[in-house]
Amino acid sequence: MQTEHWEFLKNQSENVPLLITTALGTIAAGFAIHFARRTVTIQRGEPPLFPGALPLLGHVIRYGKDANKVYQEASEWSKDKAPVSLSLAGKRLYVILSQKDVLAVWRAKTLAFDSVCEWGMVSLFGMTAHGAKQMHDDPDGKGDMYVNQHRFWRDALGPGEDLNLITHRFLEYLEVNIEEFEKTLPKDNSGVEVDLFTWTRDRIGISATNAIAGPNLLKLDPKIMEKLTKWESEFFLLALGLPRWALKGPRENLEDMIKTWMKLGVSPDMLPPLIERTHLVIAREASDWDVAASNLSLWLGTQANANPSAFWVIYQILLLPADMRARVEAEIAPAFDPATNRLTDLNHLINNTPLLTSIYWEVLRLTAGSASVREVEEDTMIGGYRFCKGAMVMIPLRLQHLNEDVFGDDVDTFVPDRFLRNASELEGNKKNPGIKVLKPFGGGTSLCPGRHFAINEIFAYVATVLRKFDMELPPGQEVAGLRTSVPSVGTLPPDRDVRVRVRMRKYE
Ligand code: HEM
Ligand SMILES: *[C@@H]1O[C@H](CO)[C@@H](O)[C@H](O)[C@H]1NC(C)=O
Ligand SMILES: *[C@@H]1O[C@H](CO)[C@@H](O)[C@H](O)[C@H]1NC(C)=O
């Protein structure tokens, strides 16, 4: 599949540099290719150039085939995990490898995120270039929208009224969603077999969509969840910024979704901060199309990582040995009304379920595939090296999660109770560094503001389906792993379909 895409690009693209990235950093790579400063030689003080750069192309082919692997190799090659320079068809990219440098990059004011956002609005979310520029205007004294957005979302989705509202709405929609599914089950309780990835998306994703956009969105286009999945899988093509004709399918899919959002128009059921945000876009005289693209981008952001993360959490629980699975079920039980099996105590789920919580963070450790990206606005010193103006900085977050020095010799294994283990009782080179070292939500100005809601929705979904249903993996089905060879938006998808038989659960 990967080779096919590769061939496709090689034959079709004209003046577009060839590049396919794997999961890590698709956005960044696309951006770098289009905007990063052209440099051929390493300047004085810049991080050392990773060996093997070809004339003109630099590392672009290796990087294009498997960016993940290039990061791994760079990490092994670099002394003391100092930053490394890559050359992508003459464009400079610095890869950050040590935790200390990650934090320094997130702190540095001269390493900016806004230009990456502006580019993404156009390439990934379908805004017109003119519309994306208009977001810089300041007709109402509320500032440049790229600059103020981080604080805006931090306030809107941080602990408080709006977070409570969206969570409350989500829980109501989830309950209805699950009830509707129950009605489709056969009366003899033989259950149905489902594809766990899609099934999860249609429970948690639809409930979150209704909570955020109001229920009309799915009424206008009942197929929009499928379009979401299609967008996720074609995301990297959009990121490459191929000529329009080469992007026909992905663009049509994207434009279909924008049109649905245009039809939705003003909806009082939308989440208040989303409405407020839209008024800012409208005040900047954006066209209806661009307002809809902006609305769409916010919705996609709420879906892209949360749904696959929820899939991984429930799947890993289904794979647990029986005694551990029983521990999770005992932990969540007090959150439910025993008579009706309704979820009545979300606080209990979030605060009093040590094993479920450890599993959640262990899932994010291994499956969060995003890269944090910055553009160098002024020459900046990081880790003793000079980062030159115009270059791109890339932090592959997952690399930090696979560091044996931090996580010990079982770093590559899924360990459900990793974050509960008593460090002083562990044998060999096993560790428990705590969840603070994990960075699945990025950091600095662009730290994910949705992380509080993500925990609420994922815990609620997982606990509810565990409580309500008997979920059984068919015997003989191979265990799915992470698909790292194909680009993803963020959270890595499974490398094969996962089938599950779902039945109502009977309690004595
Ligand atoms: C497990 C689920 C999630 C993961 C792993 C995740 C991860 C991320 C990451 C890595 C970033 C970029 C950070 C950076 O560049 O440094 C981000 C940004 C963002 N996320 Fe999430 N996210 C999740 C769920 C959500 C949810 C549920 C929402 C909304 C309700 C959301 C809203 C956003 C927004 C608005 C941004 C842009 C922030 C900004 O530019 O200031 N995310 N997320
Ligand atoms: C986007 O959402 C806002 C908030 O509900 C709404 O007022 C606006 O009409 C929407 N715009 C488009 C073009 O869909
Ligand atoms: C961890 O193990 C040590 C040694 O057995 C013990 O003294 C300590 O109380 C344990 N800590 C916790 C938090 O259980």
TrEMBL record:
Can you tell me which residues bind heme?
A: C448
Write out the transmembrane intervals.
16-36
Cofactor(s) required for function per UniProt: heme
Looking up SUPFAM superfamilies in the UniProt record yields: Cytochrome P450
Q: Cite the entry's keywords alphabetically.
A: Heme, Iron, Membrane, Metal-binding, Transmembrane, Transmembrane helix
In Gene Ontology terms, what is one molecular function of this protein? iron ion binding
InterPro entries recorded: CYP450_sterol_14alpha_dmase, Cyt_P450, Cyt_P450_E_grp-IV, Cyt_P450_sf
- Give the signal peptide as a residue range, or say none if absent: none
Cite the PANTHER family for this sequence.
24-HYDROXYCHOLESTEROL 7-ALPHA-HYDROXYLASE, CYTOCHROME P450 FAMILY 7
Protein family membership: Belongs to the cytochrome P450 family.
Protein name stated in the entry? Cytochrome P450
What organism is recorded for this protein? Serendipita vermifera MAFF 305830
